[in-house]
Amino acid sequence: MTGYFTVTEGTEAQRRDIAALLPHLDRVSPAIAELTITAWVTVWKSSGYARPEDFPYTLLAPGYRLMDHVAEVTELGVMLAEYRELRWRESFDPAVLVPTLILHDVDKPLLYERHDGSARYSELAADVPHGVLGGFLLRELGFDERIVSIVSTHAANAPFHSSRDEGWILHYADFYSCDHALRTQGESGATPFYQRHLA
Ligand SMILES: [Fe+2]
Ligand SMILES: [Fe+2]
To answer: Measuring CA to CA, which residue among 185, 156, 177 is closest to residue 75?
Structure first.
């Protein structure tokens, strides 16, 4: 165990609260679904938030809820994967894709904190990058190494992104939802990714 979080299964009520926020959990095995819930309960209980609905998604749109983003990315990612399978005849592995989509931002409750109504970085955010911290947690919980590598390298500012198909699908689902947050609830000066043109 690292000192960044304490793995906990939480109470039955806490597990139900988390499960209610996660679409497509029924697409993974019961054991992986339970482990996925444990990952989210762990960051919830290791953070200072009273409710998962309070987790912020980004400091650029602090009113946008992380769990809404997670649900959007999961639904969008599955849509993209199914389209790809139908039209391009390229299959995907739901055992890798679905946990990756649901867990890609699992470390954010440890990296952001709310204070006097606003959101800011936690002290931990200066120690471990977004994605890498999630990778630590998923590795400790025993998730498949393919999921660990995609989550660890998915962040926009990561030095590289995993070459795996499921990482590519996550990327476009993630950025589509991200730009929805920035276009609808972004702070002034928060430019959507699709408008961040290189000079
Ligand atoms: Fe992320
Ligand atoms: Fe994300």
So the answer is: 177
Query: Ligand 1 centre from 191 Cα, in Å?
Result: 17
Residue range 39-55: mean pLDDT, rounded: 97
Residue 149 carries which side chain, given as an amino acid letter?
Answer: S
pTM over 0.85: yes
Say whether pLDDT at 127 is over 90: yes
Report CA(158)–ligand 1 centroid distance (Å): 10
Closest CA to 23 of 82, 76, 95: 76
CA 35 to CA 84: how far, in whole Å? 28
pLDDT at 1 over 60: no
How many whole angstroms from 159 Cα to the centroid of ligand 2? 17
How far apart are the CA of 155 and the centre of ligand 2, in A? 8
Ligand closest to CA 129? 1
